[in-house]
């Protein structure tokens, strides 16, 4: 008798677990089907013309002072970088003069012996 109790109790537990999962999956599937149906109705039955808010570009009002300030800032930064570019070329020429002992030539191959 005890040889039958183990498999029968295992079968009952497995059947209960199977029934529980099956019922859970059926309920969730039904909920999802209902939700999808509701969403599809909302998509098909809403009016095609939806009043959208104005675009961000039209909502931005011009600010002349900030535009002027920004352009002046950009000009100053551009001048600063141009100055560094000129300074860099001067330092490069000075370094070549120190290394190769002459001025004006841009490469060591340009030096005439």
What does this protein look like?
This protein has 2 domains: 1-44; 65-108, no CATH class. The longest helix is centred in the N-terminal third of the chain and has 44 residues, at 2-45. 75% of the residues lie in helices and 0% in strands. The mean pLDDT is 85. It has helices at residues 2-45, 56-59, 64-100. With 113 residues, the protein is mainly α.
Radius of gyration computed on alpha carbons: 41 Å
C-alpha end-to-end distance: 115 Å
Task: Please provide the count of β strands.
Answer: 0
- Give the overall shape: elongated
Main beta sheet: strand number and arrangement?
Answer: none
Overall structural domain count: 2
Structural class comes to: mainly alpha
Please provide a brief summary of the model.
With 113 residues, the chain is an all-alpha fold. It has helices at residues 2-45, 56-59, 64-100.
Would you spell out the secondary-structure blueprint of this structure?
Blueprint: H1 2-45, H2 56-59, H3 64-100
């Amino acid at each position: 008798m005890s040889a039958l109790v183990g498999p029968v109790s295992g079968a009952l537990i497995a059947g209960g677990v199977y029934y529980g999962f099956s019922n859970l999956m059926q309920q969730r599937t039904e909920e999802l089907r209902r939700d999808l149906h509701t969403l599809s109705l909302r998509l098909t039955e809403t009016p095609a013309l939806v009043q959208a808010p104005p675009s961000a570009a039209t909502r931005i009002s011009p600010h002349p002072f900030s535009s002027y300030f920004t352009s002046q800032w950009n000009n100053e930064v551009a001048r600063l970088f141009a100055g560094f570019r000129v300074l860099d070329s001067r330092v490069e020429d000075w370094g070549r003069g120190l290394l190769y002992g002459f001025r004006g030539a841009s490469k060591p191959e340009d030096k005439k012996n």
